[in-house]
Amino acid sequence: MTWRKDSALQDGFQVDLVGGYYDAGDNIKFNFPMAFSTTMLAWSVIEFGKFMGPDLKHALDAIRWATDYFLKATSIPGFVFALVGDPYADHNCWERPEDMDTPRTAYAVSREHPGSEVSAEIAAALAASSIVYRKYHLGYSARLLQRAIMVFEFADKYRGSYNDSLGPWVCPFYCDFSGYQDELVWGAAWLFKATKLPYYWDYIDENINNLKNFGEFGWDSKEAGINVLVSKLLINSSSSKPFNLNADKFVCTVLPESPSVSVSYSPGGLIFKPGGSNLQHATAISFLFLVYAGYLNKANKEIDCGSNVFASPRRLKQVARGQVDYILGSNPLNMSYMVGYGPKYPERIHHRASSLPSIDQHPSHIDCKGGSPYFESQNPNPNLLVGAVVGGPYINDSYADSRIDFVHSEPTTYINAPLVGVLAYFQSHPS
């Protein structure tokens, strides 16, 4: 069944699903990466909100726009909405959001058709955001935390991957490639941070050894983030293993001078990992490095990577700064990969609303294929999406600036979200 106007009818309930974010340059709401982006915005405020100055209000507004939506998406017990829109129909069209006439079908996971990863990631986003809002709106914070507890319980009790129930729609776009165990532990970690309840600590302790990808972090894999997050609570404790040990190992897989380095670097110094939208790795790793450097500094510790290679907190910050500087223009092309920043930046980004004329300029409807000439045009996008960070250059530091080359020219929320806190920190610590 198809529902218009981002609302869904489920067992007699009419659910308002207006709000939230599209994942990238399309008009689809994929709740799995949206929840991760929200968690990262909340973590950015928790760690670096004190450096945001007047922009803190914008960060809080951005978080609430997502959490208000997630409260709607989890409002029916036993159901968690995971997707709004038909991704195949949407990707077949190049339309402004105002002109969308593709189906706005809403898809949910349930007890019979579980989706532990998307549910647990939403729980993490709600729990992290509840910590943020304690300072500003205690009632809203309590509501977020109560819902996070409920959604996490659902994710854990009815275990299964949304690949199995919603695979025809969420794959290949946001298939869960790493399994849902990491999201369950990630959700428990944020709930422990938010509640300090022993139940969640015991859950983390019992399940952490099921996670083996200590070097991964992003919308799909949460292991490195879990270890860094939990390490703050344990860094001077006898219970710090395996969390600090794995966080240290993660750092050593990234440092270029480390004997266990496993990432690649472009000639200009940008981190590369397999998969598309490569700058998601540079921003997420930079965030974790900056956060972990702060924890290490307070504990007066450094990391031993072996072969007489030691990583101090200062070195971690140096690596993070190098990635941010590259993104903002300190690279062989002297190009900023943030739209609107600096004298040279991507002008043909893979983004419908940016590339199509505004309603003011073209008030009549542009249908599904009516936008194709704008997609295929070599002209710069008419609307500047200021602040959007694209997928980034090739590993040889070249960049085509082509709308068609979406792997490199498409901005995503999960590229931008980790960068928010990192930029706030470096803006306040310029040297």
Describe this structure in words.
It is a single chain. With 431 residues, the protein is mainly α. 47% of the residues lie in helices and 7% in strands. It is built from 16 helices and 9 strands. The strands form 4 sheets. Strands 3-4-5 form a 3-stranded antiparallel beta sheet. Strand 1 and strand 2 form a beta hairpin. Helix 2 packs across helix 4, helix 7 packs antiparallel against helix 8 and helix 9 packs across helix 10. It is globular and about 65 Å long. The protein starts with 6 loop residues before the first strand and ends with a helix. The N terminus is likely disordered.
Query: In oligomeric terms, what are we looking at?
Result: single chain
Structural category: mainly alpha
User: If helices are DSSP runs of H or I spanning 4 or more residues, what is the number of helices?
Assistant: 16
Strand percentage: 5-15%
Mean pLDDT: 94
End-to-end gap = 56 Å
Q: Which sheet architecture does the biggest sheet show? A: 3 strands, antiparallel
Helicity, in percent?
Answer: 40-55%
User: What is the number of E strands?
Assistant: 9
Task: State the shape.
Answer: globular
Summarize the model shown:
The chain is mainly alpha-helical.
Supply the key terms.
431 residues, mainly alpha, 3-stranded antiparallel sheet, 16 helices, 9 strands, 7% strand, globular
Question: How are the elements arranged and paired?
Answer:
Blueprint lengths: L6 E4 L2 E4 L12 E2 H18 L7 H18 L5 E6 L2 H5 L14 E5 L5 H18 L4 H20 L4 H9 L10 H15 L2 H10 L15 H12 L8 H12 L9 E2 L5 E2 L6 H21 L3 E4 L2 E3 L1 H15 L24 H4 L16 H5 L29 H4 L3 H16 L3
Helix pairs in contact: 1-2, 1-4, 1-16, 2-4, 4-5, 4-7, 5-7, 7-8, 7-9, 9-10, 9-11, 11-12, 11-16
